From TrEMBL:
Keywords: Signal. Gene3D superfamilies: Immunoglobulins. The keyword Kinase does not apply. The lineage of its organism: Bacteria, Pseudomonadati, Bacteroidota, Flavobacteriia, Flavobacteriales. Residues 1-18 form the signal peptide. It comes from the Bacteria. The keyword Membrane does not apply. This is DUF1573 domain-containing protein.
Length: 126
């Protein structure tokens, strides 16, 4: 009985790991840009770089910020397997004080629940 249970567990684990399709992997640790303490004049733009580690074209269908002063630009074309892309961010009239914002990226990636991933921006604007 233990052998059957172990076999089933390995089978389910392998099936989940071997998903076919596009996969998105961001290079920023924990999908976060941490600016630390920064002056208002020094913070104008940022970039989240990612790679399609899957075996099908990756489509970024949406990218939106939770703050009106952050403008997000997503790739228009599909990112082919093994290729890199970027989500660009521009800040306009960033308020002073602590920043804790999220950018929601929507895609056809099979390694993220519903193809959605949250990117975080944190720091303090002096």
């Amino acid at each position: 009985m233990k052998n059957i249970t172990l076999f089933f567990l390995i089978l389910v684990s392998t099936a989940a790991y071997c998903q076919k399709g596009p996969k998105i992997e961001f290079s920023a640790p924990d999908n976060t840009i941490d600016y630390g303490q920064i002056s208002k004049a020094d913070i104008t733009e940022g970039t989240f770089e990612f790679k399609n580690t899957g075996d099908a074209p990756l489509l970024i269908t949406g990218a939106a910020s939770t703050a009106g002063y952050i403008m997000v630009t997503k790739p228009v074309m599909a990112i082919m397997p093994g290729k890199k892309g970027k989500i660009s961010i521009k800040y306009k009239n960033m308020p002073t004080g602590p920043i804790r914002k999220t950018i929601i990226v929507e895609s056809n990636a099979v390694n993220e629940p519903g193809g959605r991933v949250g990117l975080k921006i944190k720091g303090e604007v002096l």
